[in-house]
Write a structure and sequence with these properties.
Chain A: Pfam families: TctA (PF01970). Chain A: Keywords: Membrane, Transmembrane, Transmembrane helix. Chain A: This is Putative tricarboxylic transport membrane protein. Chain A: It comes from Sagittula marina. The structure holds two protein chains of two kinds. Helices cover 71% and strands 1% of the residues of chain A. By secondary structure, chain A is mainly alpha-helical. Chain A has one domain. Chain A starts with a helix and ends with a helix. By secondary structure, chain B is an alpha/beta fold. Chain B folds into two domains: 161 residues, D-Maltodextrin-Binding Protein, domain 2 (3-Layer(aba) Sandwich); 121 residues, 3-Layer(aba) Sandwich (D-Maltodextrin-Binding Protein, domain 2), CATH 3.40.190.10. Chain B is built from eleven helices and ten strands. In chain B, helix 4 packs across helix 11. The chains are: A mainly alpha, B alpha/beta. Chains A and B meet through helix 24 of A and helix 3, strand 6 and helix 7 of B.
């Protein structure tokens, strides 16, 4: 089972494949550092351009970008108190005060080392857990997959934080989009308005590019970022070998990694939640919790280790079951499908070199993060914030249009993408969360198709959905996700009264 | 000044295009429209066959594969049907899918929209059962199906495809009834079989060739044993008249000039004797069966009649 892992290693070191990871990491840091631009956006804009590339080059780029962006988000979080990616919100708590004290350089170094450790832990989790899990996934028939999809939808709606009602509305919109096209069993047209282009349903990449890339780009063009440059001029960066001995956060790193990995595996939850939980746990167990929020480096470490630890582990359900738990995992699956790699247990059997190579690329991406982001260029990456935003925005728009057009070579998709972009922009302004839309589209499709298949297998008897242990466990998990937060709130309220 | 250039250019272009009609076909690159994404079975067939067709057309002929995926191949085949019948646009053609789509929905083409060049691949159906089902011979399967109508669940890749027609033929020939579970594609259907979530499956031989130790493969729906699995008995040998498969070939728009049609069919017909081509196709799990011209047209017509007959009695949507 693990011998395939070693067998895949030589391919990873082919210079094109390795260069892809290096370029990906650098590009990821740049993207992550630009407030508003996220890994999801970068990868979805990239996917259409990878049609002609070797699979490992394409996947290496994606793995690199994902790792890089999760750290890149820390740069503006520390220097400007603007999280570069949603996952970097918790990094601002202690990172920004550090920068104000003139320790911005150290804060960024803590961030990059922690990110790297989180990424490495996550890559190991993927390598160790995915192969055995891929064997177990044969147990997942239509009724089990249906419940996984329902569980994923429930957790993204109720665990994302904020407002579950808005989350539910977003998810419903996504599920509605999943209904467009020919139905999965009979092939009847639904909401296609006689357009052949709509028969296959809405391509996930088109939705993602519209939803995730257009609103931030509009933002980019609209609001000039006030880079006062105050904090970036007093970074006080030491060489990393001097900074390293000052980082003694092993407990925090371990806890953050485990939390991040676990949250990554759960469908629906994502990096920002991992970072918050890790930050809270680390503060709760700290000897001097009162210093947190005033520039405690360990706070930066806690947040950054966790938001990188969910990267590779988010791919565990995606690669083994074919069910992506996060938007980024969904885009990466899209990237795999482009190369004819069907996720699921057969992937490990048919294309071991590619799937295990991809895992290695995650590991090397995480290691490269320290080399590229840490020792070489902490200071130069801090200057990224001075890039001219209108120029950047225009370049991204052009890439988006070309990319979406090239998926099927038709303008129809471009208009569709712009339409989704408009919807995304409005939703963004009204503070509707966007991840539930994407997961609604993906998991909604899974849920419908597998529910109908399961019912056919059971010849119409709904009890077929509750007939085995795996299904029942998933039902219990779903229920706990839905009622858990409410019960917890009641419990806390009643304790307050008493 | 610019105007003069323009006029000369237009005049030049007209002379050139007039010349093209007189010259020997092919004068320019021939476009082959594939209705599926790059990397799929049909695409692989087109790209594998292209250099050999170039060789047999001679005179530096060049084939350019263009992917127009979408709507189960319909976008591409509609484009090919409506192209100029000058021999410079060809298309791939899948049976029975392309004909079934003219029955179960409104299509922008029918069986008379094409010049039939050659069917190249015939991937025969196989009946498999999961190890968990215990139905490890055809007799056991049919016995169970007769004893408990509709109790056996059958995984397949879609309704209205070759798998579905194979099952209907089986049901008609043996007077049995099964419960159809149409997955989205053959890979998920096969995974469900491996996991024992459905008892039986109808797939194609190229899809199960490597899984013979994990599934019970009960037989193959060909007239003679398939080269892919020479040990696998046909249904005919087991006393069941069942021949069916998924076919992929090449068409051109209807109304092709006769000399062009003859030249193309001649090129395609040489494929069946080209060992290098046969090896390349075997390497990509594509069982070759070349049927050209009139015979291919007849084959399509027969399949249409079968599908239409099925649709009249038991429409699948």
């Amino acid at each position: 089972m693990y011998s395939d892992l070693l067998h895949a290693l030589p391919d990873v070191f082919a210079w094109t494949n390795f260069a892809a990871v290096v370029i990906g990491v650098i590009a990821g840091i740049v993207v992550g550092a630009m407030p508003g631009l996220s890994a999801t956006m970068a990868i979805s804009v990239l996917v259409p351009f990878t049609f002609g590339l070797e699979p490992l080059v394409a996947l290496g780029l994606m793995a690199g970008i994902y790792n890089g962006a999760m750290y890149g988000g820390a740069i503006p979080a520390v220097l400007l108190r603007i999280p570069g990616t949603p996952a970097a919100v918790a990094t601002t708590f202690d990172g920004y005060p550090m920068a104000q004290k003139g320790e911005g350089g150290f804060a960024l170094q803590v961030a990059v080392v922690s990110s790297s450790i989180g990424g490495i832990a996550s890559a190991f989790a993927l390598m160790l857990l995915a192969p055995p899990l891929s064997k177990v996934t044969l147990l997942f028939g239509p009724s089990e997959v249906f419940w996984v999809a329902v569980f994923g939808l429930a957790s993204i709606i109720f665990l994302l934080g904020g407002n579950p009602i808005k989350g539910l509305i977003s998810a419903c919109f996504g599920v509605f989009v999943s209904v467009i096209g020919s139905d999965p069993i009979y092939g009847n047209d639904r909401f296609t308005f006689g357009q052949l282009e709509m028969l296959d349903g809405i391509n996930i990449v088109i939705l993602l590019v519209g939803l995730y890339a257009l609103p931030p780009v509009i933002d980019l063009l609209e609001t000039p970022l006030k880079t006062d440059g105050v904090n970036s001029s007093k970074l006080g960066t030491e060489p990393i070998w001097k900074a390293l001995p000052r980082m003694n956060y092993w407990k925090t790193w371990l806890r953050g990694s485990l939390l991040g990995i676990w949250i990554g595996i759960l469908p629906g939850a994502g990096g920002s939640m991992a970072a918050f939980m890790s930050y809270n746990e680390a503060r709760r167990t700290s000897k001097n919790p009162e210093k947190w929020g005033e520039g405690e480096p360990e706070g930066v470490a806690a947040a950054e280790v966790a938001n990188n630890a969910d990267t590779a582990s988010a791919l565990i359900p995606a690669l083994t079951l074919g069910i992506p738990g996060t938007a980024v995992a969904a885009v990466m699956l899209g990237g795999l499908l482009v190369h004819g790699l069907q996720p699921g247990p057969m992937l490990f059997r048919d294309n071991p070199d590619i799937v295990f190579g991809f895992m290695w690329q995650f590991l090397f991406g995480a290691i490269l993060l320290v080399l590229l982001g840490g020792s070489l260029a902490t200071n130069s990456f801090a200057r990224l914030l001075n890039l001219p935003r209108p120029l950047l925005g225009s370049v991204i728009i052009v890439l988006m249009l070309i990319g979406v057009y090239s998926i099927h070579g038709r303008m129809f998709d471009v208009y569709l993408m712009l339409g989704f972009g408009a919807i995304g922009w409005v939703m963004d302004r009204l503070k509707f969360p966007l991840p539930p839309v994407v997961l609604g589209l993906i998991l909604g499709g899974f849920a419908e198709e597998n529910l109908r298949l399961a019912l056919r297998i059971g010849r119409g008897d709904p009890m077929v959905l509750f007939q085995n242990t795996t299904s029942l466990i998933l039902v219990a998990l779903t229920v706990s996700v839905v009622v858990g937060p409410t019960l917890k709130k009641r419990f806390i309220d009643s304790r307050k009264k008493a | 000044m610019l105007n003069i250039f323009k006029k000369t250019a237009i005049a030049g272009a007209m002379i050139l295009s007039a010349g093209a009609a007189l010259a020997e076909y092919p004068e320019k690159p021939i476009e082959v429209i594939v209705g599926y994404s790059a990397g799929g079975g049909t695409d692989v067939m087109a790209r594998t066959a292209a250099p050999f067709i170039e060789k047999y057309l001679g005179d530096g002929a060049s084939l350019v594969v263009k992917n127009m995926p979408g709507a189960s191949g319909q976008i591409g085949v509609t484009e090919a049907a409506n192209a100029d019948p000058d021999g410079y646009t060809l298309g791939t053609f899948n049976l029975p899918g392309m004909m079934a789509r003219t029955i179960d929905r409104e299509a922008g083409y029918d069986r008379d929209s094409f010049t039939y060049l050659a069917n190249v691949v015939n991937d025969p159906n196989v009946i498999v059962t999961s190890k968990a089902s215990g139905l490890d011979t055809l007799d056991k399967l049919l016995e169970e199906a007769k004893a408990n109508p509709l109790a056996i669940t059958v995984g397949m890749s879609s309704l209205g495809g070759d798998d579905h027609f194979a099952l209907i033929k089986l049901e008609q020939a043996t007077d049995t009834e099964f419960t159809i579970v149409p997955f989205k594609g053959s890979a998920p259907a096969r995974t469900a079989l491996l996991g024992g979530h459905v008892a039986m499956g109808i797939l194609n031989i190229s899809e199960v060739a490597e899984f013979q130790d994990q599934l019970n493969v009960l037989g193959v729906a060909t007239k003679e044993r398939s080269q892919f699995a020479p040990d696998l008995p046909t249904f005919k040998e087991q006393g069941l008249d069942l021949v069916n498969g998924s076919m992929r070939g090449f068409i051109a728009p209807a109304g092709l000039p006769e000399d062009v049609q003859a030249k193309l069919i001649d090129a395609f017909s040489q494929l069946s004797d080209d060992q290098e081509f046969l090896d390349a196709m075997a390497a990509t799990a594509n069982p070759v069966e070349v049927v050209t011209g009139e015979e291919f047209k007849q084959l399509t017509s027969d399949l249409y009649d079968l599908a239409n007959g099925v649709w009249q009695t038991t429409p699948w949507n």
